[in-house]
Amino acid sequence: MIRDITIGQYYPANSPVHRLDPRVKLLGTLIYIISLFVFKGFAAFVLAAIFLVAAIKISRVPFSYMVKGLKAIVVLMVITGLFNLFLTQGTPWVSFWVFTVTYEGAENAALMLIRLAFLIIGTSLMTLTTTPNQLTDGLEKSLHPLSKIGVPVHEIAMMMSIALRFIPILIEETDKIMKAQMARGADFESGNIFRKAKAMIPLLVPLFVSAFRRANDLAMAMEARCYNGGTGRTKMKPLCYKRQDYIAYAVLFLYLAAMIALRFVWTYLSALFGW
Amino acid sequence: MSIILNKVNYVYSAGTAYEIQALKNVNLKIEDGEFIGVIGHTGSGKSTLIQHLNGLMRATSGGIYYNGEDIYDKDYDMRGLRSKVGLVFQYPEHQLFETTIFDDVCFGPLNQGLSKKEAGVRAFEALNCVGLSEELYYQSPFDLSGGQKRRVAIAGVLAMKPEMIILDEPTAGLDPKGRDEILDQIAKMHKERGITVVLVSHSMEDVAKYVGRIIVMNQGEVMFDDTPNGVFRHYRELEAVGLAAPAVTYLLHELSERGLPVGTEATTVETAKKEILKMLASLEKR
Ligand SMILES: Nc1ncnc2c1ncn2[C@@H]1O[C@H](COP(=O)(O)OP(=O)(O)O)[C@@H](O)[C@H]1O
Ligand SMILES: [Mg+2]
Known about the structure:
- The complex is a heterodimer of chains A (275) and B (286).
- Chain A is mainly alpha-helical.
- Chain A has two domains: 166 residues, no CATH class; 78 residues, no CATH class.
- Chain A has a two-stranded antiparallel ribbon.
- In chain A, strand 1 and strand 2 form a beta hairpin.
- Chain B is α/β, with parallel strands linked by helices.
- Chain B has a six-stranded mixed beta sheet, with helices on both faces. A four-stranded antiparallel beta sheet of chain B has the order 2-1-4-5, covered by helices on one side.
- In chain B, helix 3 crosses helix 4 and helix 3 runs parallel beside helix 5.
- Chain B is globular, with a radius of gyration of 21 Å.
- The mean pLDDT of chain B is 90.
- At the A-B interface, helix 8 and helix 10 of A face helix 2, strand 6 and helix 3 of B.
- The site of magnesium ion has 4 residues of chain B, from helix 1.
C-alpha cells in the first residue's frame, strides 16, 4: 500500500562504503556528477562506468536497488532523449515525415541518457549507503564555515533531520488511519474526483491533528532537555576522518586526475586524426 | 457462523532488506459468540493477525473463510465483511475527525448506506452502550479525555452493528479505573448482545478475568490456544517468552509445591480466594 513509497531509502549493510564518513560521500557524489557533465568522449564514460560499478560492488547493495531509482525518472529520460534526438541541428542521418535525426542528435541523446542514468545511480548509491542522520550531520559539518557569515547552518540541518525522520512516521500514520477508516466502511478508491476529495476528509483531519500533536510533543521533549540551538552543542558521534576516508579521498582525486588526463589525451588525439 | 484461518502466513516488506515474517502458519477457528483473548509480547504479530480477520491485510499465503466463504474470492464482498467484523484499532481515538461526537459515530452506519435517521438511531444506541453521558453527544470529540475519546471510537465501530468485534489493546494507556470500565462494558456487551468478541492485550490479568479462550502468540506463531486454565498451566513457558501468568497462578502453584492441598486452576482473585478458603477448611477438619 502507501507504505511502499520509499524516499531516500537506506539499505543496511556493513560495507566499506557504508562505513565512510558522510562528508567523503557527499563530496564524492558532487565530484562524480561534475565529472559526468564536464568530460566528453568515449574513454571518459568508460572510466565513469568502471568507477560506478566498482563503488556499487564494494557497497554490497544489490544492483536492483539502483535500478529502482531509475524507474522514477524514466519519463524524464525519454523526453530528454527525444528532444536531443530530434531537435539537434547537424548532418542528417535518417529522416521521416517532418522529423530528421542527425548524427549529432543521436550522439547527444545517447550522451544525455548515459549521463542521467549515471547521475541517478550515483546519487542513489549515496542515499542507499548513508542514513539520513549521517547525511545531515555531514552536511552540517561541511557547511559549518558558512555559519561565520550568518547562515543558520545548525538550524537548517536540524530541520532537515526532523523532516526526514517524520516522513516514515507520517506515512505509517496515514496507513493506520486509512485502515481504521476503511474498517468503518470508508471508501477511498471509487467515485469521481469530488467524491474522492470528500473521502479524504476522514483521513486528512486526523492526520493533521496527529502531525501537530507530534510536533508539540517533540518541541516539548527538546525543550525539556534544554535544547537551545547549535551553540555549545557537542555530538555523541562526532565526525572525524579515519584512514579509510583518506584512502577514499585519494581514490577520488585519482579518478578526477585520470578524467582530466583523458580529456587532454582525447583532444590531442582528435586533433591529430582530425576526428 | 465462524471464521477459519488456514495456514496463514504474512510477510512485511517482502523482497527487501527489511523483510519480516509476522505470521507463520496460523491455523484458527473462531466460533460464533466466543469471547477470545489474544495475548503476546510486543511484536508477536497480534495486530497483524487481527487485521486479517476483516480483510484489511491480505495473507501472503493461506486462506481465510468467513461462514464458509473464501474471503479472497474475486467477487467476495469485502466491504460487507468489514461491516460484519468490526475492528477497533489501537489508540482508536486518533481516527476521530468529525465536528461532533454524534456525527463521528454516524460515519460507519452512513457508509453502510443507512439513512441519516437510521444512522442516528444506531449512534444513540452505540454511545449509550459505551456509557458516554448524553450531554456530551454534540461536543467536539477533540475536547474529551483520553478514556472518553476511546469510548467514542469504540462506539463508532459498534454503531455498524457488527456480528463480531475485535479490539486491539483497548486499554493501552488508560488508568486502572478507565481500563476496568471499558473491559466491563465490553463484557456486558458480549453477555447482552451475544456478539463475538476478540480482545487483544498483553496483560494476562485483563484477559483472564473475562475471556473463555486464550490464544497466545509468539513470534508470529500460535503458541497456545486453550481455556485460560489450560494456558496458565504453562506459566513457565509463558515466562520464557516474556509473558506472565496472573499473580494468583503463581501463588497457588507455590502453595501446592509446598505440599498444601490446593487446586492450581484458579485464574482470578475471586476464584483463587474460594480455592484457598476451601483448602483452609479442609485443613481444619483434619
Ligand atoms: N507496517 C509494518 N511494516 C513492517 N513491519 C511491520 C509493520 N507492522 C508490524 N511490523 C512487524 O511485524 C511484527 C508483528 O507486529 P505486530 O503485528 O504489530 O505485533 P503486535 O501487535 O503483537 O505488537 C513485528 O516484528 C513488527 O516489527
Ligand atoms: Mg499491536
